[in-house]
């Protein structure tokens, strides 16, 4: 009976050894067909800040929110800029009216009025001429006894004033007919352009009070709050780009021949080992470097390695920045890793 028991135990042990050997052989064979590397998820980030200083009025997204290109994320208080814009618009309108007036010239009614004023001045001149002539006749006929010299001088002064008024009215009429000088027109247009440029600058500054997302991304950090005073040097949000996303791994020189640009790879997360994410090798460094301390390998730390990036398509955002992962790269038939 004891012999039968012992024989049974030996048979069971033999079967177990054979199973263990087969499992080990199968795993070894499977391992031989892949180059296994260890690395971390890397994602590009964008630090967003306003172009100008101001007080934050609104913050519209939180950490973890997905944002689209052009989406409004935050705004600054723009009351002062809006007042400046209204002022510039009013100045622009007044200058435009001046330009139109200079181009059109005087209205017919204004010319008619100027001619009437010239005629009135001419009539006044004729009146003073006749009065002076009458006084001069009296002086000649009475040897200066009929009127005083003061009255004669007063009449001459009135005549001269009337002559000056006629010349002034004549010049005004000619100016109305000829219109504004070309130099004055150019100066008015130049001032209009200056005001227009100032309004354009104010409108541009108004657009910069809105902070918009430049890319499709995920909000990684909200660094300021409503009411904070901000500047162009202070980031308001940090965005993590959802595309491209890659795994940074390091390959030693012996295994470098197994890595090809465009080659396929599998990215395996520790929490989901049976749900690999497909990727492609998109970058192989041409310069060797010492193994970074963050990379866990079984080799000596000072081994020279080459950086490799495995790009992945991760629309569901399963991979997080800095997450440690395992990368398996299939080997061609007959190839072996350097430690075999």
What do you see in this structure?
The protein is an alpha+beta fold and 340 residues long. Among the domains are: 48-78 and 208-237, OB fold (Dihydrolipoamide Acetyltransferase, E2P), CATH 2.40.50.100; 83-204, Helix Hairpins (Orthogonal Bundle). 43% of the residues lie in helices and 26% in strands. The protein has five helices and 13 strands. A six-stranded antiparallel barrel has the order 1-8-12-10-9-13. Strands 5-4-2-7 form a four-stranded antiparallel β-sheet, with no helix packed on it. β9 and β10 form a beta hairpin. α3 runs antiparallel to α4. The longest helix has 34 residues, at 108-141. The protein is rod-shaped.
């Amino acid at each position: 009976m004891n012999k039968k028991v012992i024989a049974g135990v030996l048979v069971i042990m033999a079967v177990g050894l054979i199973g263990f050997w087969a499992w080990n052989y199968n795993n070894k064979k499977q391992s031989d067909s892949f180059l296994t590397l260890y690395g971390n998820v890397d994602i590009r980030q964008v630090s967003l800040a306003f172009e100008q200083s101001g007080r934050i009025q609104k913050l519209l997204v939180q950490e973890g929110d997905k944002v689209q290109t052009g989406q409004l994320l935050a705004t600054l208080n723009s009351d002062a800029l809006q007042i400046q814009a209204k002022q510039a618009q009013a100045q622009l309108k007044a200058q435009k009216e001046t330009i139109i007036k200079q181009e059109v010239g005087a209205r017919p009614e204004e010319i008619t009025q100027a001619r009437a004023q010239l005629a009135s001045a001419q009539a006044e001149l004729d009146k003073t001429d006749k009065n002076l002539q009458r006084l001069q006749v009296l002086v000649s006929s009475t040897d200066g006894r009929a009127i005083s010299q003061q009255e004669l001088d007063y009449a001459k002064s009135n005549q001269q004033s009337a002559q000056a008024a006629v010349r002034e009215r004549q010049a005004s009429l000619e100016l109305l007919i000829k219109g504004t000088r070309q130099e004055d027109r150019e100066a008015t247009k130049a001032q209009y352009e200056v005001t227009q440029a100032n309004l354009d600058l104010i409108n541009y500054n108004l657009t910069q009070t809105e902070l918009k997302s430049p890319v499709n991304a995920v909000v990684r950090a909200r660094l300021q709050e409503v009411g904070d005073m901000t500047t162009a040097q202070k980031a308001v949000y940090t965005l993590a780009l959802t595309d491209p996303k890659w795994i940074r791994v390091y390959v030693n020189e012996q295994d470098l021949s197994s890595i090809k640009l465009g080659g396929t790879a599998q990215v395996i997360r520790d929490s989901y080992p049976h749900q690999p994410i497909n990727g492609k090798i998109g970058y192989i460094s041409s310069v060797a470097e010492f193994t970074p301390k963050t990379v866990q390998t079984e080799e000596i730390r000072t081994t020279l390695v080459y950086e490799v990036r495995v790009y992945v398509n991760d629309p569901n955002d399963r991979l997080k920045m800095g997450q440690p992962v395992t990368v398996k790269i299939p080997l061609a038939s007959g190839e072996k890793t350097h430690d075999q």
